[in-house]
Amino acid sequence: MEAAALGFRMGQALSMEPRLDNAKGYPGTQWDWVLTLNPNQEADGYSQLDERTDYTFEAITVADGMIKQIPGAGSQYMSAAKDKTGAWQDGGKSYRLRIPPNAPVKDFWAVTAYDNMSRSMVQTDTHRDGVDSKQADLQRNEDGSVDVFFGPTAPAGKESNWIKTTPAKGWFAYFRWYGPTQEFFDKSWRLADIEPTG
């Protein structure tokens, strides 16, 4: 029992704060690549044990289309378990993610919140765990950017852009680009950190 609990915590640590040189999606931010491994989980001269643990703590399946850099095809994923200040994201606090205009996607983008213990999507009475660019009720700012809010209560009038979280529970976010375009790969478009707002 003690070994299982320790193994869980080791997997969680490797996943929530990867110690891999290639983990940062946007250097200087809290966004990490979800996938840092090859689909066959092997690299030149070693098996990707840390990379495998990092990924499989959160997910299971992996495919070439999730890591190949083909503009306009496949999908790409980053995650953030910490806010802009470097603090772990707390379900009892409020946050904002400002998504810049002209997100580099051919299809759509999506942001989803996950419980950092169960690794399942957050479970609340709203039955809503994400916001995406295909939503008919998505609210956009005048410049085309989108604010996504996380926290136990919604900012007034922003319910359609809000993901409810639960006090006393930690959480992490996935940001997904479906059909990422060249601006994603050359980093001329950059995702901002999740910021605490209260």
CATH topology category name: Jelly Rolls
Across the major sheet, the strand order is 1-4-10-6-7
What's the main sheet like?
A: 5 strands, antiparallel
Report, as a whole number of angstroms, the end-to-end distance.
38 Å
Give me the Rg, rounded.
17 Å
Task: Label the overall shape.
Answer: globular
What's the CATH architecture?
Answer: Sandwich
CATH class: Mainly Beta
Low-pLDDT ranges: none
How many domains in all?
1
Order of helices and strands: HEEEHEEEEEEEHE
Report the helical percentage: 10-25%
CATH superfamily: Domain of unknown function DUF1214, C-terminal domain
Instruction: Give the amount of beta strand, in percent.
Output: 25-35%
Number of strands: 11
The number of helical elements comes to 3
Supply the helix-strand structural class: alpha+beta
Q: What is the overall pLDDT average? A: 86
